[in-house]
Amino acid sequence: FSEIYNKSEKDLPDLSPSKRQYHVIRLLINREVSDLLNTTAKNLDENKIHTLDDVRRAPGKLFKFSDELAAGNLKLKKFLF
After folding, report:
1. Residue closest to 21 by CA, chosen among 40, 37, 1, 50
2. Which CA distances in Å does 62 have to 11, 13, 38, 48, 57?
């Protein structure tokens, strides 16, 4: 979270606190969506997924966050809850 917040401050240093909140949330969502798409594409390629039957026979989850982002999400959830 601090990495995203620092990026927001660097990119847009003059934002008001309320707009900073929205910008940080937007950056977090963008990071998660990008990570999910990239990790899923990598998993589909590595597992040679071309058909629905390939998906059904896959040995594990294909659509997931990277291990790095999943660990970061766990830390964020512990902080928030």
Report:
1. 1
2. 33, 38, 11, 11, 11
pLDDT in tens, 15-26: 999 999 999 999
Distance CA 7, CA 27 (A): 9
Does residue 1 register a pLDDT over 80?
no
Q: How far is CA 23 from CA 17, 39, 50, 71, in A?
A: 10, 24, 37, 22
Structure tokens of 31? Answer: 């990071």
- The pTM score is 0.81
Q: How far is CA 11 from CA 6, 19, 38, 62, 71, in A?
A: 9, 13, 24, 33, 25
- Flag whether pLDDT at 75 surpasses 90: no
Amino acid of residue 14: D
